[in-house]
Amino acid sequence: MPSDWDYFMNNFFGDPYMMWHDGIDPTAAARLEGEEREKAESMLIEAVKEGNHYAARGLGEMRSKRAAPVLKQLLTHEFGLLQIEAAASLNQIENTTKYVEIIADILRSDAHWSTRIVAAMRLKRYKTPETIDALFEGMLDHDYLVRNHSATSLLHIHGFPDSISSHMEIFKLLIHDFDNSSEEALKESMEKYRESVRLLKEFMKVDT
Question: What confidence score (pLDDT) does residue 79 get?
Answer without folding.
Answer: 80
